[in-house]
Automatic annotation (TrEMBL):
Name this protein carries in UniProt: Glucose-6-phosphate isomerase
Annotated family: Belongs to the GPI family.
Catalytic activity, EC: 5.3.1.9
Taxonomic superkingdom: Eukaryota
SUPFAM superfamilies noted in UniProt: SIS domain
Reaction(s) this enzyme catalyzes, per UniProt: alpha-D-glucose 6-phosphate = beta-D-fructose 6-phosphate
NCBIfam families for the chain: PRK00179.1
UniProt keyword annotation of Isomerase present: yes
Amino acid sequence: MCYLLGCCSIELETPSDGSILVDFSKNLIDDEGLSLLFELPRSIQKFSILHLHCMVTPDVLQAKARKVEEVRDNVLAGKKVNFTEAEAVLHVALRNRSDAPVLLDGKDVMPDVKKALQQMKDFTEQVISKHWRGYTGKPIEDVIHFASGCNFMGPHMVAEALTPYAIGPRVHFVANVDGTHLTETLKKVDPETVLFIVASKTFTTLDTIVNATSAKEWFLSKANDPSAVSKHFVGLGANVTKMKEFGIDERNMFVMWDWVAGSFSLWSTIGLPIALSVGFENFERLLSGAHFIDNHFKTAPVEKNVPFILALLGIWYNNFYGAQTHALIPYDQYLHQFPSHVQYTEMEANGKCVTLGGKPVDYDTGPVVWGTPGTNGQHTFFQLLHQGTRFIPCDFIAPAHSHNPIRGGLQHKILLANFVAQTEALMKGKSAAEARAELDKSGISGSQLEALLPHKMFKGNRPSNSIIVRKFTPFMMGALIAIYEYKMFVQGAIWNIDPYNFLGLDLGKQLAKSIEKELQDTVPISSHDPSTNGLINHLKRNF
Ligand SMILES: O=P(O)(O)OC[C@H]1O[C@H](O)[C@H](O)[C@@H](O)[C@@H]1O
């Protein structure tokens, strides 16, 4: 066995919610190696002396030389870093808990941000205190949030994670344009006591608007009164004209701005369902947690900077070891949507094959991100993590304290023991001698032992990071999400790609528009390639 220990761990003390320990010590790199990573590309030669095959060209991987810090400062200064849309990316303003201004084109955006937060606060308080009434005078019991992409994933993931803090109406999320999602959700609500949130920056995203329009039709078929819409529909977005066209009452519009980039929308008014569920104070704590990491990322030297190190280790495996995927395993059932959220944000941001300058990259960019909560994964895909042929770095995430310490906390200790054990098993593995001794001890010998032996061995040397927080409070969730946002950001900067566009989603959307028209009748078509024609014509024959 040749695992390397001891690169480092960092403990961040939060002002209110205990610490966040980020332990990097189970990685295939030591302190010297990590410091060399900080020195890329000067250290590339040293790595080749260590016989590590560098899968990128030296002029590309330049943690410092590529000036991550400069990119960061440009973002924080409100420069138009989202160049495809010529927009700034100012989510730090949304969670700015200080009095410092955040400038965009020389103007402080904070007064607008504060106004939007005040509107969210007032509305949330009215709904939770049951002063907001539906068209028959009853208070709101359920909220359905219609959204796509980040506007769905972020609030949904956080609302699930903060379930123990829920004090408001039940919140439901509908994203899929598959009518099943809406139908099944409507079965759970009463038109007299439901509030619909339509959340879309552009207010044109097909899935969202189709679902919301169907919900409006359903609602009007029950209420039989168009004036009832203003008591049951609110809009979150940057396109006021489209919100009006949809029929959102002006008083029910919660604005966001074009400078809120896709994956960061949960910090804006798009976070309204979170506030409605857990109360506005907890929403503010969520913002404070992210703000805490904003400051850490901004001020900590790279050697002590948690997102920076996570990003470099990811690059280490992605570009030096050829890892194709990265697994996230939260040991907290409330965080069951967290891997999907990070999957969405990282894969949308860093799933690019051209540089910022438009040249094809000649190195791997964002890996496949995936995961599921422990201990569930332990009974399924962990087999591949331990004994498969793939090399899969993992992040393990756990709280020291459970929201549900049943049996005097015993069950949580069982969970935590599993978390720690998995990281140890992945690292240490089990040698032939150890496996042989075990088999011997259990009375197995001879040919049976020899046959079993290879199956009982674990190669080990499988790297992982461990993140332990005191408890998953709203503040901690804010901090955790922000850590992964900055990891993604640093990697995008080092790979020299544009993390803010999602143009890779356009082609399918464009084609769907024309295919939708073709599916309206049963006349066979021949305008596509033979395979696509075949699928369309099969559907037409079977309608
Ligand atoms: O906010 P909208 O205009 O509705 O956009 C909704 C979604 O559109 C695309 O699918 C992007 O990939 C997402 O990042 C975005 O969240």
